[in-house]
Amino acid sequence: MHMICTFAYQRLPDDILVSIVEVLGHEGDHRTLKACTLMSRSTLHFCRKYLFRSFDMRSRWNQHVQEAMIPQFYDFLTRHPHLVRYIRIAYFMDKTLVKCIVNCLQLPPLLRLCTSISNFGLEISNGLTTWLTLSYDLRGAILEMISRPHFTSLRFSGLDSIPIDILARCRSLRCLDIEDSVGFPDSSIESCVHRFPLVQLRELIVKDSQPFLSSLLNAQGIVDLSRIETLTFGMEFEYSVQDCWNLIYTCAKDLKSLKFIAKSPSYVDHFLLSEYPPALQPFITLSPLMHLQSLSFSIFLLEDVVGDLEPDEFLKPLCLLLRTSVSTIQEVSISLCLDSFEIFGNNEDRQWMTSGTDADGVAVNFFSELDTTLSDTRLLPRLAQVELTIFILDLDSDDDEDYNTHSDDGWDSDDSLGRWEKNEFLVPDGVVRNSKKMLGETQRRLGDGLRVALLDIP
Q: N or C: which end of the chain has fewer CB within 10 A?
């Protein structure tokens, strides 16, 4: 490495060396970046920009390691103050019962010391924690940090009773991420409206935080929701459907990306009327979203939460929603979290219809209706990309005899699907190939624009 660095320093101009460092930084190759700090003084600054850019506790799960991280990091920065200016992202996570992270004495001075932070996150679990139960010093440090002109991204998870008027202090806030939190309008909202300009949000993520969502809709004197371009909802909580879609329509002017995350089968009831044939709620439509380009659904099809619903019912809201959209949609993303491979074959115990024929003798499978919708060029004329990501939670099965096969292993343009052997499911290529086969019409329309990926979750 020393010879390579010496060669690069002697032969390459500084702008090329900086470009190399930037590539390494974007790839997250910290080991090579550390070696490059010894290359020349001209690249030292750029190496440090990536090496010290982020302080993130999410990758550290051990309680004892977490407890020591903040005091050690604060001590390191006080001894090396020239590195403070490189820190842009600070994410703190507290999973301890005694709240040793949020109660750490070094946390408030650490936030005050790092004046360049633009992205801040605080995730709390294991017990009720409210904004007022945080120490006065920590609340003051957070308010001071989010008031800085370069602060752009705020995330709270597991923090209740968040005063909505603190957003008025975030003059440059562009991304707000709230999960498992309760918010309420503060009595000082009116005074904040006169003292601060409207916050121009560009991205909003709300998961399991219905009270905060309601407060946000009532605080439009603080936040300008009409400028939001990316909107994400987590549907695992009993949302007020009307509030959810009121926010979507408020964002209709500039909204380009809309994403739903469903971890519970009750999400189907948020979209559909209780009648047959299934139909959307009368106020649910994508037609006002004139600039919508991307629609995403993340669905959890787990055996212990599916209940009496058939698997294809989970895709029904997406199919019906796409039929109400304008012709601007260019990308559709579907993420399926599964605990078995049953939707790609046929498991006789669950009696899920994953292949067969309908009343007219047309072959049907789990993706049939979605395939018909995505392949309709009149409905989605600008559609260029469909991404299907399959997350597998558990590859084990107790009953080997449930899986049989009546199809070959190669690509078959015929849409009729048989059952696959169990060992075929354990091969990622087999699942990907069968998924593309079940989306045959979409595959023929988009070609390489249909992307299927299989990922394992331990």
A: C
Do the domain assignments include residue 105? no
At residue 394, the pLDDT reads: 55
393, 395, 400, 403: CA torsion to nearest 10: 80
- Listed in sequence order, the residues at least 6 apart from 434 whose beta carbon sits closer than 8 Å to its beta carbon are 344, 417, 420
* pLDDT band at residue 344 under the 50/70/90 scheme: low
- List the domain range (segments joined by +) for residue 42: 1-51
Asked whether residue 24 is assigned to any structural domain, the reply reads yes
Helices (H), 282-439: 303-306, 316-322, 368-374, 422-425, 428-438
Per-residue pLDDT, 1: 46
Beta bridge partners of 124: 94
Residue 112's pLDDT band (cuts 50, 70, 90)? very high
Whether 124 shows a pLDDT value over 60: the answer reads yes
Which contiguous run of DSSP H or E holds residue 73?
A: helix 63-79
In a domain, 75, yes or no: no
Say if CB 149 and CB 175 are below 8 A apart: no
Please state the domain count of the chain: 2
DSSP 163: E
